[in-house]
Amino acid sequence: MFDNLSDKLDKALHVLKGHGSITEVNVAETLKEVRRALIDADVNFKIAKDFTNRVKEKALGQNVLTTLQPGQLMVKIVKDELTELMGGDASGVNLSGNPSVILMSGLQGSGKTTFSGKLANFLKTKKTKKPLLVACDVYRPAAIDQLHVVGDAIKVDVFSDRGNQDPVAIAEAGIAFAKANGHNVVIVDTAGRLAVDTEMMDEIANIHKAIQPQETLFVVDSMTGQDAVNTAKAFNDILNFDGVILTKLDGDTRGGAAISIKSVVDKPIKFIGTGEKMEAIDVFYPSRMADRILG
Ligand code: GDP
């Protein structure tokens, strides 16, 4: 019946107006619509609730009910708040090292290997860097093959050591290889598992400690919705990462995970993945994301 949140809120508030005096309670009712929209977009329930409480204060402060189109003003307030919440300094990746080392973290299937390739391609093309990809997944030979396929496609060198079962040693050897061969960016792709477990966390913590990357990125599948919060927190507790990569935004998801993650770990979302191709990478724009989440 209604095509977007703005219409829904206008309608709700007009109905309320027709019933005489409008109170804080009525605003709270309409904010339930906002909360529902956020939860539909996969924003974590508690975060959506805290968020609408803040919006409520703002809405009452701005006398939202005396305007002609209260729904639209409400949506503007919501959008501004969302944009602010997802904002923060996302000024790209830190390339100050020589070589600059970038460590990729995240669950298996989140899109780490694909994004490692995309980032290497992006840095090569836009920033005229000479990246090296390093394959540190010692559990799945297919993952090493996959990184080689990606490297070949974008014409970026890949360092791997198939017999070696020690990811820390491989990462260190990769960096040494980069130094010896004039690579000024090293992207270290690591193993992930299907859920957070101690072994994986210990392993990535050890790699992180040994190579001391300039930039640690947490890659998360935007389709994982509510679960993304727990995963992001677990990785951030261990790695204190620098930024988030939200992948698979070409799918159906509204991308509410962006808000949940930003609220929980307070780290900038730096890039988004919008497809399987190497070119499907975009810088993250909070305001575009807010539009998407609001529908
Ligand atoms: P990893 O296990 O974290 O290294 O994840 P992969 O890079 O292997 O990605 C898992 C699957 O997701 C692969 O089939 C990728 O092609 C796919 N994938 C990765 N990023 C994206 C994206 O942004 N959009 C879509 N549609 N698929 C993606």
Automatic annotation (TrEMBL):
State the compartments where it is located.
Cytoplasm
Q: Which GO terms describe its biological process?
A: SRP-dependent cotranslational protein targeting to membrane
State the source organism's domain of life.
Answer: Bacteria
Query: Transmembrane as a keyword?
Result: no
Quaternary structure, per UniProt, is: Part of the signal recognition particle protein translocation system, which is composed of SRP and FtsY.
**Family per similarity comment:** Belongs to the GTP-binding SRP family. SRP54 subfamily.
Q: Would you tell me the protein name for this molecule?
A: Signal recognition particle protein
Naturally occurring in which organism (per UniProt): Dokdonia pacifica
Organism lineage string: Bacteria, Pseudomonadati, Bacteroidota, Flavobacteriia, Flavobacteriales
Give the fragment's position in the full-length protein. 1 to 295 of 443
